[in-house]
Amino acid sequence: MNNFNNQSKRTIYLMNLISTLLLGFFLISCADVTRQGVAFGIRHDVPLAKYEQATLNKKQLDIPDLSPVIQFAYSVDGKSEDEEVIASGILINSEWILTAAHNFYVAEEQSAPVNPDRVIVRVGKNPNEPEAEYTVDKIVLHPTWITQGDGFTLGNDVALVHLSAPITNIKPVKVINHNDLEPLGKPVWFAGFGDYSMTKNQDEDSYSKLHLINNILDRRVSGIITEEDGKTYSGGLLAFDFDSPDQTHNSLGDDFIGEDEQLLGTGTSQSEALPLEGTTVEGDSGGALFVKKNGQWVVAGILSGGAADPYLDFIDGDYGDISIFTRIADVRQWIDSVIRR
Fold this sequence. Notes:
Strand order of the largest sheet: 8-7-11-12-13-10-9
Number of helices: 5
CATH topology of the largest domain: Thrombin, subunit H
Mean pLDDT: 87
Number of domains: 2
Strand content: 25-35%
């Protein structure tokens, strides 16, 4: 009798366990189905095409000239024909492109920076049909990134890429001066070649086109000091958050302050989403943040990364995401010193 009861209990336990596992699988599957086709990096109520079309709409929108924004592509191992890494950059001189250092070297993952010979530069808003392609002969990483690079924390995630031949048919972008202040609380534009290939109605086998997102600049951090070989370097950060249309997500204006947010200091953030509000995604790294100074759009930041967990149950690239940029004004003197060599 006791054996029968023990067997019955084991049977019931196994049946309950199987039921629980099946229910869990069902819920996970439902969650996956729910997420399929949901936009990331852009408003859920605005199609990706509008963010792409905005790059062509200079007559109706007050936007910067985006011709200098370029795409990088290279194979990690230097052997595979597949271009495994996609990144963004901005032409600041006929021979030099400004971008993020982590696009080419992360100390924890690599023994040495990427060989310039592997890198392809694509010009034009559609990298599937580039207007031109260029090769690279030199990549110059910020000196303290090589030895102390740690994401965006030190404000030194910046690099300069030298082209094998100059680009003569595109006017380089204007770069903010080292002593200029970016206008907090004012609209900014970000342009990059982030990967949206998994978004609904996109071709998984094609490169994503140049897109343009609008936001409000929320944070500015200046004067982060690093040292290398007896020299002192200044670094800094800029940041904005991705507000939701219903104003329920305003990460840089709410009471929850994550570890990465603490690096950005205090400030305010409006909760109202702009018509082309968005955030940055993989492939946007090194893309340009434009601010308006004296009636002109100038590059003030280079995308470095995003804050981890700006709120509980956060989904990367969704509302509430915080994009963090290397502040160019702080590293402008280093940039000038490299170009003058």
